[in-house]
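Protocol step 4 of 6: structure prediction from sequence.
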Amino acid sequence: MSATKETSTISGYHDKAIYIDEEILQEAVLEQGLKDEAERIVKQEGIRFNQARRLSLEYRNIQKIDHLWKFSSLTKLNLNNNFIKKIEGLDHLVNLTWLNLSFNNIKKIEGLNGLLKLEVLNLSNNRISLIENMDTLMELTILCIANNKLQQLNNVVYLRKFKKLFTLNIDGNPIPEENDEEKYTLFLAAYFQHLKFLNNIFLNEDIVRNRNRASAKYNLDIEEMNQGELQAQQAAEEKRKQEAILQMHEDAFVEQLNGDYLYTNIIQNDTELKKLQCLPGVDDLLEAFEHQLVDFCNQLFEVGLIEYKRRDVEVNSFCSRLSIDVTDNQSRAFKVLADFLMQHKQRTVDLQEAPEDEKKSKMDICLKEINVLCYNLMAVEFQLYSYLEETIKKFDNNISEMTGSFSETAQGIFVQCRELEDSHHQKVTKIAVTTLEVVAKGEAEDDLPDDVRMLFLDKNTVMDTLAASHDNHLQTINDRETQLVSRAEAWKVALIKGIEDTELKRNRMRIADIHRYADYLRVQLKEFM
């Protein structure tokens, strides 16, 4: 049963508020268009929420939005005239273009960030006092937020960022300027150059002509705002570009390898370095080590980007071929079905008109042909499934070869990095041994720190320090190599598994559809008996 909770009177009636649950959703989907044969299938096999395009849940006393994550294909959602207090639970509705939340108890605009395709939003008759948290709704064309608690006309200017917005309704809000119709209209006309409808009224030619006068009146503010918006837009665009570049680096598994990041990481992880860095000549060795290590990293980075583009071309080519193959198969299946229907129509007519003593034999012929249709459609599907199975295997081999080749190249460069570190370690060790001899003779330079001087009185401690530093350097290099190779392999495995799972799901759905259709045809035939 649905969870219930007493609420106050809203929209002229008093009742119990409820939460959205599976039962409510099934009832709503069935009410909205699923009739006759579709309803029979639904009752037999269950409702596929992920295929629903529209959902109306108005006037149901709903208090909380929940259980909508399965509706991934939903484009239109009506939740008006309920008791909803908070906008939530909509993150998975990525295809939503229409949302009606009017006549609820909502106080704050929130929970809309994932609705990137939203075009129509109705928030009228709520308790909203501030327009906010809508930055991602760049496809918005119609916004109704009438009869709320907006008090500042300047807050409405927030909506200027929505360049596609042509209809706005903010009527019935306690905005002081609303009492001065000319100032109110001119202000909005000046700030919203693309607006066509305001408060359900078409902005006629007189108002449009007055835009020039309004723009002049608010010229300074608008100019500053335009400049600020332009700068913000440029900054956002630059940020998007940088994020896209960094994402590409990650997808290529070589992020932060185009520079001194690995060297810096090595130095930061080396707790023993400071004890050795003051020795004469060590800084020069570190500088040479950094220069050569950065060269190796840049080499690996460039190879990574080249290999990423190769893999990307291969993946896109495969997906394109896959789409063409599926489409071709659908065409063949459609032809099989079309040929059947041409003859099936006449057979059903013959069945209806046949004398009673001939109906059974004609029914048997119809049932036999339905079985033949089912077999033929299954054969077409099996042919596609077998072909795609082989195609996916070839693709798997190609991607595995590409990923394996890149991993081998990367491992070869990391070997060079370790050899470089070994050479560097040997040179530092040579300087340390020389310093040990100097300190033992009492000939150490005066500027040698006391703690370092004390360290070099014990040869074993010095050698342990050198070994620890060397191990730290190698461990950092090894960790970055492991990260690259393991992520490349994990990406390949996830890619192939995702393709295989998708194809298996398509195949099972197709087989189920064939059986359902055949059952539907058989049920129809029984009506003629």
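Step 5 (inspection) to follow. The first strand starts at residue 4 and ends at 6.
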